[in-house]
């Protein structure tokens, strides 16, 4: 189960997402479902596909029990590598 403490070690594809902070201010407020995750970007599907860079972006993820704000700087890596990585401070 995805929780606040272990969200960084899980796959994000399939979660509902909202952009609450970004270096590119026009991306703030984009909502949708995460359909793809790469090394540096996340693809969100709403009416169309939006490719959002991870670095400098704050994602609000909806899990079945709670909403979690995730800073993109912590997840800049491939999903399969992020599972193995140790995160010092979260």
Description:
It is a single chain. With 90 residues, this protein is mainly beta. The protein has a single domain (7-82), classed as Ribonuclease P/MRP, subunit p29 (SH3 type barrels, Roll). Helix content is 4%, strand content 37%. The chain is built from 1 helix and 6 strands. It has one helix at residues 79-82, and strands at 16-21, 31-37, 41-45, 49-53, 58-62, 67-71. The chain has a 6-stranded antiparallel beta sheet with strand order 4-3-2-1-5-6, with no helix packed on it. The longest helix has 4 residues, at 79-82. The radius of gyration is 12 Å and the shape is globular. It starts with 15 loop residues before the first strand and ends in an 8-residue tail after the last helix. The mean pLDDT is 90.
Number of beta-strand segments = 6
Which regions contain 5 or more consecutive residues with pLDDT less than 50? none
CATH superfamily: Ribonuclease P/MRP, subunit p29
Q: In DSSP terms, counting alpha (H) and pi (I) runs of 4 or more, how many helices?
A: 1
Please name the CATH architecture. Answer: Roll
Domains, number: 1
Provide the spatial order of strands within the biggest beta sheet: 4-3-2-1-5-6
What does the main sheet amount to?
Answer: 6 strands, antiparallel
Structural class: mainly beta
